[in-house]
Amino acid sequence: MNKFLSILGFNKKTPRIVLRGVLLVLFSLILIAPVYSMSINEMKQEIDNSLRGIEQEIAALVADIDGLKNQQRTLAREVRLFDAELRKVELEIKRIKIEIDKNQQAIGEKEKEIAVYEKKLQESRNALAETILTVDQNDKESILEIILTAENFSDVFGKITNIESVEKAVHERIAEVKDIKSVLDKEKEVLEGQKEELIGLQTLAAIQQAGLEEKKQAKVDLLAQTKGREKLFSEQLVKAKQDAAVLRQQIFLLEGSGVSMPFEDALTLAKKASSYANIRPAFLLAVLKKESHWGASVGTGNWRDDMHPRDQAAFFEICYELGLDPDSTPVSRKPSYGWGGAMGPAQFLPRTWLGWKDRVAEATGHNPPSPWNLEDAFTASALKLGAGGATQSADLSAEALAKAEWKAAMIYFAGSNWDNPIYSFYADDIMVLTGLIQEQINLIEDSPVQ
């Protein structure tokens, strides 16, 4: 104990009260350290448990929503449906925010790792510089000078061996620098991916928040129109089903591109485009409606301010082929987080469009096709959805087709990350909208033109 105290700088003359205080602090730190470590692990576990709880509640709400949709349409049913959907969106926003926190924490940890590697890299570079200086000094002394100035042959061999070892050290240092640099580059690439994912999550949160406000307003509008009375709701429902002529001329608006047309014209165009990929026209119209709505929510922009640099070369190529001026050709504006740059009614990004344009040209006969042309845009979306598995077949049940369409919508939106539940709200919304549009199509087709 005396030896331990002397290491800490204390001696026999140190007051006992001071010694006791120091020992108490030391033992407290020893006891607290593992508890603090456990607290971090427990905190991570709590976050995971929260996510699981949210996902379970969302799954239960989805089941409730599906059950309500199968019930007879009444005002009470509509209100309950709104309430369930609102709660579902609130939970989805909460889940996204938890994922944002996790992502930010991961970014912080990765930045610390990168700082360590950068320090190692600098240290290795400094060591390499010193070794090269040693080699340079050795190079100034020739073998003949070493032999003539040495007192004996053992000194000669010693100096030559030393030169060889230094040169070997140079090669080792160079290899070390290369290895650390390689690891550092990979870590920075991972960090960049995490930052892009964070931007994507922040964008999703903003989108979902806007969707939540829209649903709240829709509920308010419903109650205002019906005055909370079942009779008025039933009367409105009957009137909507009977008025096929009005529905035919109802404006189908693709907000993001400013395109509008009678619903019947949009349906005719969707049927033609859908036939190239054998998908449901209602499903195609739902996706186009959703995509263009998002485009409208951020407004119109230009490539200089709103497009990600990686898409700009592809955008120039598209404009050049179509004889368009990039500076006067509109794209979607950059939102609060992330990038804009999406083109036309289908809101394709330039690089994505280049991946589909040959198939679009083959289907429509337009060469080159244009993302701002309605038929080309509808066809591109149809082909992409068909490639995602939304194709119809005679032996496919309605339930199986709905599942295939849900997955295709997820792939359309999230690509290779389609199975991440955080993106499921998109496909859920698409399927709800598909059902509404299909009802409108059925009403038109069941009511011949007068």
Low-confidence stretches: 25-37
CATH architecture grouping of the largest domain: Orthogonal Bundle
What percent of residues are in strands?
Answer: under 5%
Widest beta sheet: strand line-up: 1-2
Report the sheet with the most strands, covering strand number, pairing sense and barrel closure. 2 strands, antiparallel
Helix fraction, binned, reads over 70%
Overall shape: it is globular
Give the termini separation.
105 Å
Number of distinct beta strands: 4
What's the number of structural domains?
A: 2
- pLDDT average, as an integer? 77
CATH class type of the largest domain: Mainly Alpha
Describe this structure as you would to a colleague.
The protein is mainly α and 450 residues long. It has two domains: 2-212, Helix Hairpins (Orthogonal Bundle); 243-446. The protein has helices at 2-7, 16-69, 75-139, 143-149, 153-226, 230-242, 244-249, 263-275, 281-298, 303-306, 309-322, 350-364, 374-387, 398-414, 424-446, and strands at residues 251-254, 259-262, 300-301, 331-332. The strands form two sheets. It has a two-stranded antiparallel sheet with strand order 1-2. A two-stranded antiparallel ribbon has the order 3-4. A hairpin with a 4-residue loop joins strand 1 (251-254) and strand 2. This is Transglycosylase SLT domain-containing protein. Keywords: Coiled coil.
